[in-house]
Specification:
- By secondary structure, the chain is an alpha/beta fold.
- It contains 16 helices and 15 strands.
- It has helices at residues 8-18, 23-30, 34-41, 66-76, 82-92, 102-116, 179-193, 215-230, 247-267, 275-291, 294-301, 388-393, 411-423, 426-457, 464-471, 489-498; strands at 133-140, 147-148, 151-152, 156-162, 168-173, 199-202, 234-237, 271-272, 316-321, 327-330, 333-336, 345-350, 354-359, 362-368, 380-381.
- The strands form 4 sheets. Strands 5-4-1-6-7 form a 5-stranded mixed beta sheet, with helices on both faces. A 4-stranded antiparallel beta sheet has the order 9-12-13-14. The protein has a 3-stranded mixed beta sheet with strand order 3-2-8.
- Helix 1 packs antiparallel against helix 2 (23-30) and helix 13 (411-423) packs across helix 14 (426-457).
- The longest helix is centred in the last third of the chain and has 32 residues, at 426-457.
- It starts with 7 loop residues before the first helix and ends with a helix.
């Protein structure tokens, strides 16, 4: 076919067929034309062994503008479409580029993105062993048009499903995605199964993960963790905004509502006398769907964990978003984070003595648990290493920084700032203390503290340049090597003796 390369497999197949068939029949078997067959018979090498073609079949319509105009535009905005680029060319060069150039531009743009474009998202297909994962989620069922006692019934459906077998359980929820709804639906499903999977996965349900200042909401998060521990399940969630990571439950929302919609059509009406009748209707539909996976469920039931009876929680797992100030708050405690995490939503595991922060399942950093000092409203754990690079660009912000008094790694640094602020202009004092913190962040915190203590004892202000030179790594000394060349006359004497 035009535009398709002949492969080595086609050539070998043609030659094998050619031993017993005519040229046209062998070409048809190999999927090539008779003209190509005649050319192949005159060649000894395979297509992969020949050099690539270096010539064009026609002039390049984009030769004058591709590198000079289009590539810079793509490097600045890689998501520009071929239509937009063609319209820009028509504005810059009236009458030179018509609509027949669009296909050429699309092919060139596709090739450029394949070789120079940005990395794209990769979807990783997952295996689901029996008994490993169960998923919970809520879905809006208002589109079914159900009425109860002649009144529109706006509601949601809670659904639990096993990832391996596809067994599911559905419950009617006429309120929000509360912890009570999650707990009731999950426990009912697990008791029907007679066991619990290894992992319980949801999306960012407020009933399980949302962290608000309200004490009752905070209790809900603790109760969800205790609920999962009670059944021996490991709680997990997908990344915010990545619904495809919960495909095992998201796809079943669509199939469940489709089955319900079809059953309502067969029933001839979406009206029910009471809620119990509607719940019974949903139960019948779900049982019919579960009958299709009964064989897989038998194998999965044997892999489920037995249902435990006690609750325990080693840590609280709470969401925390790093603000533009490089700070996130967990349980009313304020922590600093590396500036690269600004804008990201972390999963903070709060232990008794430390806080571990995870992003997409990976621990990005760990810090000690914040301790409230006297006079503080909130406990704070501010690490100057996270913020010193930005302070170097804006040293003047240090003087009235909200977290200024929490950033000093040792007492001597605070005393040094007080001396600098009292004896130097504000701008110079800020530059000096920020420079000292930058030196400490480079691995000289303890050594610099000793230097500052000596200066403080003698009532002297630190000289930033002098301390920088003193703490800088010593340059290695290069030995001086003197090479003495022998006189060439010595070689003449040796030649005379040899002769």
């Amino acid at each position: 076919m035009p535009g398709k390369r002949i492969t080595d497999h086609q050539v070998l197949k043609f030659k094998a067929q050619r031993r017993t068939r005519t040229q046209s029949a062998a070409a048809a078997k190999a999927g090539i034309s008779e003209r190509s067959a005649r050319r192949i018979e005159s060649l000894e090498s395979l297509p992969s062994q020949r050099p690539p073609r270096q010539w064009r079949t026609g002039p390049d319509p984009l030769a004058a503008v591709w590198e000079a105009e289009l590539v810079p535009l793509l490097q600045t905005s890689p998501h520009l479409s071929a239509v937009t680029l063609l319209e820009e060319l028509q504005r810059r060069h009236p009458g030179e580029y018509g609509s027949n150039t669009l296909r050429t531009l699309q092919r060139r743009l596709r090739q450029w993105r394949a070789t120079h474009g940005r990395e794209r998202n990769v979807f990783f297909a997952q295996e689901h062993p029996p008994g490993r994962q169960g998923l919970s989620d809520f879905t809006d069922a208002g589109g079914l048009g159900v009425t109860i006692a002649r009144m529109v019934f706006p509601h949601r459906l809670y659904q639990f499903a096993l990832a391996h077998s596809g067994w599911r359980s559905a419950e009617v929820v006429d309120g929000g995605e509360s912890f009570q709804a999650l707990s009731a639906g999950l426990q009912r499903a697990l008791w029907r199964l007679g066991g619990a999977p290894e992992e319980h996965r949801t999306d960012s349900l407020s009933a399980a993960f949302k962290n608000l200042c309200d004490l009752e909401r905070r209790e809900w998060t603790s109760r969800y963790a205790a609920l999962c521990a009670h059944y021996g399940m490991r709680p997990s969630r997908n990344n915010p905004g990545e619904s495809h990571e919960n495909g095992s439950i998201e796809s079943r929302h669509g199939s469940l509502k489709t089955a319900l919609r079809q059953a309502l059509l067969l029933r001839g009406s979406s009206a029910f006398d009471d809620r119990q009748a509607y719940e019974a209707f949903i139960e019948i539909v779900v049982q019919r769907m579960n009958a299709r996976v009964e064989k897989r469920l038998v194998a999965e039931r044997s892999a489920l964990h037995p249902l435990p009876t006690r609750r325990t929680a080693e840590f609280d797992e709470l969401p925390a978003r790093v603000s533009k100030y490089g700070i996130f708050t967990v349980k009313g405690e304020q922590y600093s984070a590396p500036s690269r995490l600004i804008g990201h939503r972390l999963s903070a595991r709060v232990y008794v003595d430390r806080v571990e922060c995870y992003l997409s399942g990976q621990c990005v950093f760990e810090c000690p648990r914040a301790v409230r000092s006297t006079g503080q409203r909130h406990a704070r754990q501010i690490d100057y290493r996270h913020l010193v690079e930005n302070l170097k660009r804006k040293p003047g912000a240090f003087a009235r920084w909200v977290f200024r008094d929490d950033v000093f790694p040792r007492t001597i640094y605070r005393q040094t700032w007080e001396n600098l602020n009292a004896q130097l202009p504000e701008r110079q004092a800020c530059k000096t203390i920020v420079g000292l913190l930058a030196l400490a962040a480079d691995g000289h915190e303890a050594t610099l503290a000793l230097e500052l203590e000596q200066l403080h004892a003698s009532n002297e202000l630190p000289d930033l340049d002098m301390l920088t030179q003193r703490l800088a790594p010593r340059p290695s000394a290069i030995p001086c090597v003197v090479v003495t060349l022998p006189s060439l006359t010595a070689y003449d004497a040796l030649l005379e003796v040899a002769s």
